[in-house]
Write a sequence for this structure.
């Protein structure tokens, strides 16, 4: 999750994140210079330090007659906006927030639907974005997103071609041990994150053998395993509302 600070106050939920890139927008109704910083949080870790501050100056725009909104519905009906992200039939994990982006006419008013339901949307210039997510009832299904636009008082455009989003069950995450770490011989507690209500299995990725009993509390799992000396590998999978995830990427570590 990305948090944005303006004038010193941290605001959660003011940025959308997609594949390691975050997006947000901000506006003022009067000329002012504002200072912005960002920081991030990752499940299971403390928030990062804030970035270096950046000052943004908001100025009054010139009054132009050709920018004045048309009255009534006399403006030409615009073409549908585009959806550039995600690609059609792209797959995402259940509960994962999916960034949806596209292009539109400059200054357009946008309407976006996800699976037939309206969702909030922000636009800046000729770009727009929103985010959606689906619960476990969407497992294995394709949910559609579409958009349309209104420009300077025109009627709304036709809906864009729908983009389908598939949802799958995510593999659970292993937080400890970390890759290439070294530990003492004997019992060690493994831990990680999973979907709330899931059943987690910790396995040897070489032969699929279960390594121990896993306890789950909320979205956190733990498992105590007794190790002898040598190089070890662990992986995890979860069963969520009857649907089994793929096995996670193996973590390799050493017992000495």
């Amino acid at each position: 999750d990305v948090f944005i600070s303006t004038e010193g106050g941290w605001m959660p939920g003011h940025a959308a994140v997609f594949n390691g890139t975050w997006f947000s927008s901000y506006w003022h109704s009067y000329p002012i210079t504002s200072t912005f910083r960002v920081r991030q949080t990752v499940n299971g870790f403390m928030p990062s330090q804030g970035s270096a501050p950046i000052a943004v100056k908001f100025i009054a725009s010139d009054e132009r007659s050709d920018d004045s909104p048309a009255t009534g519905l006399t403006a030409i009906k615009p073409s549908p906006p585009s959806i550039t992200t995600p690609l059609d039939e792209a797959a995402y994990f259940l509960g994962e927030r999916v960034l949806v982006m596209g292009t539109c006419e400059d200054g357009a008013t946008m309407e976006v639907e996800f699976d037939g339901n309206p969702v909030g949307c922000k636009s800046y210039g000729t770009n727009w974005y929103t985010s959606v997510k689906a619960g476990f009832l969407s497992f294995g299904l394709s949910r559609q997103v579409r958009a349309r636009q209104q420009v300077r008082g025109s009627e709304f455009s036709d809906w864009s071609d729908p983009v389908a989003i598939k949802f799958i069950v995510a593999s659970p995450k292993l937080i400890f041990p970390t890759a290439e770490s070294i530990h003492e011989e004997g019992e060690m507690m493994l831990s990680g994150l999973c979907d709330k209500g899931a059943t987690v299995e910790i396995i040897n990725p070489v032969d699929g053998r279960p390594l121990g009993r896993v306890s789950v509390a909320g979205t956190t799992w733990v498992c105590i395993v007794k190790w002898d000396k040598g190089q070890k590998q662990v992986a995890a999978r979860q069963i969520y509302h009857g649907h089994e995830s793929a096995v996670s990427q193996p973590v390799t570590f050493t017992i000495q």
